[in-house]
């Protein structure tokens, strides 16, 4: 009596649905874990067929293995996919009496919906990692021949003595070569695990250094740059060369957005400390009063190769590379934009360095 009770308790303790079935699909017994299954409203399980009580069907389920188990006297398994998106693995185990005849079948149902989702995600990220590695390899291999193509073409151009037609063709070669080089460079940054260690970095210094590099390029387009750097900004642990790159990308995008602005062209750069529940971050914001971004494009701008610029101008990798860098630092890039009014991009890097 005690052992019967123990078995019943064991049966109930299992968190997956378990049923004992006879050969005619009648439920002999089941535990109380069937609530999430689609056929739960069909009354007393012990007077019910499994297909009705468990799955809500009027007839035997399409892939049912019960007959097969009785025939083959061996366990069986099949997967059930419901329209609701749920997936179940169903296992059948024959139970034998002393004469080695099957007198019932244990059915064990396991909800594997989440597990399948995670497996798919893992596979996807594995695939992405493999593609990333391959892209880095290809980019690396292409870098040297591309340098030769551009260099040699430039040398022929410089030497002169060729007719205008050929000079135009050469110029095309150089321009396309430079574009390829830019894509290669971006792919390398994107996939390279930059080996340089993170160090204490001031975002203000990043802004100042980047401006010293490209201010001339931007001012050439009659753009007015205004700065508001927080003097009390704490340092963050970061790879400063990568942060330089993010800032350069944001500034060049702002410059491009201002190109057709007939009025006063302005870029405003600010830094500051932002306190939030999840912790403090240092932020650098680049705001322009350029063309802005259409709402239907705002979700796409971080996608690799999304660009609204002509082929010779943009590769569409700048923001995806920048977001990759921000995320590698535990941070983000946020964007606010109004078409015709301008855009504001904010790089936020968490201050989690213990010394800060
Ligand atoms: N400040 C901005 N104002 C308006 N549109 C922007 C701005 N920054 C980015 N965009 C839009 O997002 C797109 C993607 O930007 P991203 O920097 O990734 O690529 P790109 O600038 O086109 O090319 P690349 O940076 O590789 O030369 C741009 O083509 C542009 O349409
Ligand atoms: Mg860009």
Automatic annotation (TrEMBL):
It comes from the Bacteria. One of its GO terms (molecular function) is phosphorelay sensor kinase activity. Keywords: ATP-binding, Kinase, Nucleotide-binding, Phosphoprotein, Transferase, Two-component regulatory system. CDD domains: HisKA. Residues 137-353 form the Histidine kinase domain. InterPro entries: HATPase_C_sf, HATPase_dom, His_kinase_dom, HisK_dim/P_dom, HisK_dim/P_sf, PAS-like_dom_sf, Sig_transdc_His_kin-like_C. Its EC number is 2.7.13.3. It catalyses: ATP + protein L-histidine = ADP + protein N-phospho-L-histidine. It is an enzyme of class 2 (transferase). This is histidine kinase. It comes from Desulfoscipio geothermicus DSM 3669. The lineage of its organism: Bacteria, Bacillati, Bacillota, Clostridia, Eubacteriales.
């Amino acid at each position: 009596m005690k052992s019967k009770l123990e078995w019943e308790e064991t049966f109930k303790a299992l968190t997956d649905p378990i049923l004992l079935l006879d050969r005619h699909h009648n439920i002999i017994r089941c535990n109380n874990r069937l609530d999430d299954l689609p056929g739960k409203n069909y009354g007393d399980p012990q007077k019910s067929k499994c297909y009705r009580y468990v799955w809500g069907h009027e007839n035997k389920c399409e892939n049912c293995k019960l007959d097969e188990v009785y025939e083959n006297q061996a366990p069986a398994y099949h997967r059930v996919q419901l329209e609701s998106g749920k997936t179940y693995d169903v296992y059948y185990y024959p139970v034998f009496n002393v004469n080695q005849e099957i007198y019932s079948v244990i059915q064990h149902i396991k909800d594997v919906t989440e597990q399948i989702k995670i497996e798919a995600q893992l596979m996807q990220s594995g695939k992405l990692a493999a593609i990333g590695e391959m892209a880095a390899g290809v980019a690396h291999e292409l870098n040297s021949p591309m340098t030769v193509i551009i260099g040699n073409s430039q040398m022929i151009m410089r030497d002169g003595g060729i007719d205008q037609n050929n000079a135009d063709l050469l110029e095309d070669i150089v321009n396309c070569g430079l574009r390829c080089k830019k894509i290669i460079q971006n792919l390398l940054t994107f996939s390279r695990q930059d080996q340089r260690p993170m160090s204490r970095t001031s975002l203000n210094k990043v802004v100042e250094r980047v401006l010293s590099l490209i201010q001339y390029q931007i001012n050439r387009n009659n753009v007015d740059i205004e700065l508001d750097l927080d003097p009390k900004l704490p340092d963050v642990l970061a790879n400063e060369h990568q942060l330089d790159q993010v800032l350069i990308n944001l500034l060049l995008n702002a410059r491009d957005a201002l190109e057709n602005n007939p009025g006063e062209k302005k870029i405003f750069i600010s830094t500051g400390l932002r306190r939030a529940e999840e912790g403090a971050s240092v932020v650098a914001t680049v705001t322009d009063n350029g063309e802005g971004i259409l709402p239907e494009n705002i979700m796409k701008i971080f996608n690799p190769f999304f660009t609204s610029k002509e082929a010779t101008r943009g590769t569409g990798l700048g923001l995806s590379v920048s977001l990759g860098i921000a995320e590698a630092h535990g941070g983000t890039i946020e964007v606010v934009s109004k078409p015709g009014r301008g855009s504001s991009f904010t790089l936020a890097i968490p201050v989690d360095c213990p010394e800060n």
